[in-house]
Amino acid sequence: MTTTPASPRADSVDSAHSAAEAFLRDFHNRLPGRQSVNMEGAPSADGRTGYQLLAAEVAGARRVLDLGCADGALLEVLAAAGAEELAGIDLSEAELAFARRRPALARADLRQGRAQQLPFPDDSFDAVVSHMALMLMNDVEQVAAEASRVLAPGGRLAVAVGGGSVKGEAMSLFLEIAAPYFSAVPPERSLPRLGDRRTRTREGLDELLTPAGFEPVSWTTVVIDMGGAPEQVWESLTDAFYDLAALDENQTARLRTEFLAAAPFLLDTAGRIPAGMHLNTATTRLR
Ligand SMILES: C[S@@+](CC[C@H](N)C(=O)[O-])C[C@H]1O[C@@H](n2cnc3c(N)ncnc32)[C@H](O)[C@@H]1O
């Protein structure tokens, strides 16, 4: 979408976007199918996963597009809920290869590409969804404009974004222990800036979405629990935090040792530690 940059500033913004997308694509090409395993094992208080909560927000929609669909876990839930025409787009071909193996998605239109440049005609969906992906996207105004373009009049948009860890539980503990490791990463190893902070708040999303023709969002927050045995929680945290990609093997091993040494005080009688994360869901429709 971005063509010749108009100024040096636009040039550097554009290359930051490309660096972020290249990082995400490479990360997911190396480790496909990992996010969904964690999320499918992370129920909210009523037992539903983030995928099921988001699918409920667009119940009845016949044609649904998932932005940042990865291995198709949300699309599979949508198929089970009765959506008939499913499409997904993701930066990572390896994630999409996993999605293509799901029998429920045999007829889904799965594309490698950017949510900022959707390869779909105008007015072609009743709903657009995105689970834990919008918050990683740059140039979000363009994503909003594209979602608006491909939605039919009155079409719905439902996104789930991370809302931070539950204090006093394992994800918080991990972040406390990891903070000095992450802040010591030298500039040459540091990650590109991912996403736009406005996608993480209700006000920010309204600021991004209303110019694209959407109504103010409805906003819901739940806690999903990625808890389990300490080793298992460590594994899911290592999949959940991109920042770990900036650490070398020794640093990761030291962080793991520190985390596993600190985690036992959280153990319950079943040998499990809780690892809650807030999940925010924003739902809106075209005006
Ligand atoms: C944290 S994963 C979430 C995957 C999936 N939605 C889920 O919850 O299981 C984020 C996904 O968004 C994709 N992604 C990030 N930025 C994107 C963009 N601009 N266009 C398309 N996909 C993107 C990544 O490749 C990655 O697969």
UniProtKB/TrEMBL annotation:
CDD domains per record: AdoMet_MTases (cd02440)
Annotated Methyltransferase type domain residues: 65-158
Keywords: Methyltransferase, Transferase
Keyword Methyltransferase: yes
Enzyme Commission code: 2.1.1.-
InterPro entries xrefs: Methyltransf_11, SAM-dependent_MTases_sf
GO molecular function ontology, one term from the record: methyltransferase activity
Record's protein name: Class I SAM-dependent methyltransferase
Organism name: Streptacidiphilus cavernicola
GO biological process: methylation
Keyword Plastid: no
